Amino acid sequence: MTTPDAAQSENVATRVKAALKRDPWDLPDVSGLVVGVLGGTGDQGRGLAYRLARAGQKVIIGSRAAERAQTAADELGLGIEGAENAECARRSDVVIIAVPWEGHAKTLQALREELAGKLVIDCVNPLGFDKKGAYALKPEEGSAAEQAAVLLPESRVTAAFHHLSAVLLQDPQVEQIDTDVMVLGESRADTDLVQALAARIPGMRGVFAGRLRNAHQVESLVANLISVNRRYKAHAGLRVTDV
């Protein structure tokens, strides 16, 4: 006779096996999701907002000042709206965190309630700069994404969009951006959504790169890319081979 515990274990094992067999490129339709970009008036946030809106996504730019957000939205066009950070978070299904590292913790602490239940994508890179160039910082929590997970316990925190050139993102003459986006998170359903969102931008592909505990090295790699770009006067990105 099968006990309830044994039956439950068997069901879990069956679901795990089914998930492993699933095509990793079978991604959900995210075209109807509203994407908020906190820090959307900065170069990276502005570029992501522009690219996603250009791909047909509904986008809201968030800023500490609603007027500043609306000005940036009007400049970008494409139906993008601007709002104060809290309103942006409330009205969005998915929220990208693209604020400067120095304001990361303070911004998230203030928006904990508005971001509850939301899919949050952290793309912040903790970096320092000196006369030798850029170098990686390591937050107490391990990474910016892990800090976000600690500060937003009721949100579904993922990490992605770290290695994109803000120059290319904002250039209307660039039709597609040929790069891979490393996506990290604790839930496959959530990382699949982020991968699908990345794939909305022509030339981009989202690639699952592990759980949030692996976010530090992904965030840190931006320091290396800055060095590459300075030496070769480029806007380098990443490609993952054989995937």
What's the overall average pLDDT, rounded? 93
* Secondary-structure element string: HEHEHEHEHEEEHEHEHEH
- The percentage of residues in β strands lies in 15-25%
The shape, in one word, is globular
Distance between the termini: 44 Å
Number of strand segments: 10
Number of helices: 9
Largest sheet: 8 strands, mixed
Strand order of the largest sheet: 3-2-1-4-5-8-9-10
- Radius of gyration, CA atoms, in whole angstroms: 19 Å
Broad structural category: alpha/beta
- Helical content (DSSP H or I, runs of 4+): 40-55%
List the uncertain runs: none
Protein model, in words:
With 243 residues, the protein is α/β, with parallel strands linked by helices. 40% of the residues lie in helices and 19% in strands. The chain has an eight-stranded mixed beta sheet with strand order 3-2-1-4-5-8-9-10. The chain starts with a helix and ends in an 11-residue tail after the last helix. The mean pLDDT is 93.
Furnish the topology, listing elements before pairings:
Layout: H1 4-21, E1 34-38, H2 43-54, E2 58-63, H3 66-76, E3 81-84, H4 85-91, E4 94-97, H5 104-110, E5 119-122, E6 127-130, E7 133-136, H6 144-151, E8 156-159, H7 166-170, E9 179-185, H8 188-199, E10 204-208, H9 215-232
Parallel strand pairs: 1-2, 1-4, 2-3, 4-5, 5-8, 9-10
Antiparallel strand pairs: 6-7, 8-9
Q: Could you give a short description of this structure?
A:
By secondary structure, the protein is α/β, with parallel strands linked by helices.
Comma- or semicolon-separated keywords:
eight-stranded mixed β-sheet; single chain; 243 residues; globular; alpha/beta; 10 strands
